Amino acid sequence: MLIWLREEVDLSMRLAHGDTYTDKRGRRYRRMTLAQRTQLRKDYIANVPKWRSPFIGYLVTIPVTAAVLICTIYVAKMFGQFFFPSTFCVISILFVALFWGAGPAIWSILLNSAALYYFFVYPTIGYDLTNWRDSLQIVPFIGSGLIIALITAQRERARFQALATELELQLYARELEETNKQLEDANQMKDRFLSIASHELKTPVTTIRGQAQLMLRRISHQKKTVDMDGIATTLERINDQTGRLTILIEELLDVSSMRAGKVVLNKRVCNLTSLCQDVIDDHKLLSERHITFEVPAEPVCINADADRLTQVMTNLISNALKYSPERSTVDVKLQAEATHVLISVQDHGRGIAKDQQQQIFETFYRTPDAQSSSKRGLGLGLAITKDIVERHGGRIWCESEPGHGSTFFVELPL
Asked: SUPFAM superfamilies given for it (predicted)?
């Protein structure tokens, strides 16, 4: 709940942050909307026992006034003369105010004033308007009753403010709990990233260093003749590990740009059919695997960032090749609908469990099967892919059953 319960708002109060206000004493408050005031009032009434609700107080005031009037008349007859007939009436007002609040107390003042006038003032002055000063003897009673009602109203307002403060503290407690949870998740993600990154980056660097040292030893041992085949093999391994290290660094840079909101799409009209075909041809050449590609008869053209979509297709196809058997095929399909284009990449690997199909798009997340396999990675590819697709106004999802492979779908608007 938002706190703004002061009846007298300081004119020097100024808007600080959105709905947050700061008064001249430096105290910060939040603006309370009408709906929030209504809800807070309902919560306040809900915390009060039913027999102490204002409606019950208005009803109880009538028999209480009647009982007080009877007692006053009885005492007046007993002693013959009663100088303070309003004594019991003040006590009744105090009783009503104590249990039912300011509203029923004001109602009690009206009833008691009418009763005092009718039974004690009117019999004295009758219809003689010249004795109107005698009717002013109930004014002190009315004044004392209003003072009681005012004190009760202040007491109710203090209770209302206490409830609002309690609700505000509960809100802040929930916010702090959510913030702490986010910080814990971020801390765990940081630790997981450091663990994975240190391992993944260390492996290619160690290999590159070892291969470079091996080539240097070969060159130093063979002063006259140089084994070109050995040098070529060593350089190929260095090139492979350097490429792997480059991919890891590029993924880390993409994640950094993605989180900083610095990813800029250079959209232009591109042939999606040709783009997918080029990515498939590259993977066929590198992996020597069989990849099928089903396309419509007409080329599919969309307004998008061709480089980023190439990165999307590269991630999806490389994952399908990585986590499926060596001799299995990967099926890529491109469909053009009325308002969007649908791309699917299907593999025949182990599949992904239902509870993991949403988590695989999270940063640094890898399934237990991926962690236990010999295939290395930081768990960034699908997170980057999802961000690129969503920045194009599309969506990506996975359909999979353990043991029956996985199919990744990318939907992009035309």
From this structure: ATPase domain of HSP90 chaperone/DNA topoisomerase II/histidine kinase, Homodimeric domain of signal transducing histidine kinase
Contacts of residue 119, defined as CB under 8 A and 6 or more positions apart, other chains included, come to 69, 72, 73
Nearest in space to 190 (alpha carbons), one of 405, 402, 364 = 364
Between CA 4 and CA 155 the distance in angstroms is 17
pLDDT of residue 7: 36
Which residues lie closer than 8 Å to 281 by C-beta, 6 or more apart?
none
Distance CA 268, CA 2 (A): 47
Do the strands 406-413 and 395-400 form a parallel or antiparallel pair, or are they unpaired?
antiparallel
Alpha-helical segments (H) within 84-138: 87-100, 102-116, 122-125
State residue 276's pLDDT score. 93
**The Cα angle at residue 382 between residues 378 and 388, in degrees rounded to 5:** 125
Q: What is the DSSP letter of 362?
A: S
**Among the listed residues 350, 405, 413, 345, the one whose alpha carbon sits nearest the alpha carbon of residue 381:** 345
pLDDT mean values, one per 10 residues, the chain (414 residues): 34 42 56 68 72 85 88 78 74 87 88 83 60 68 87 82 77 86 79 65 71 72 60 70 70 66 79 92 86 90 90 90 88 91 91 83 71 62 87 90 89 90
- How many of the other CB atoms lie within 10 Å of CB of 60? 18
User: Residue 315 and residue 329: Cα distance in Å, rounded?
Assistant: 16
pTM value is 0.47
Domains of the chain are 14-176 (no CATH), 183-260 (1.10.287.130), 268-413 (3.30.565.10)
Report the 10 Å Cβ neighbour count for 258.
Answer: 18
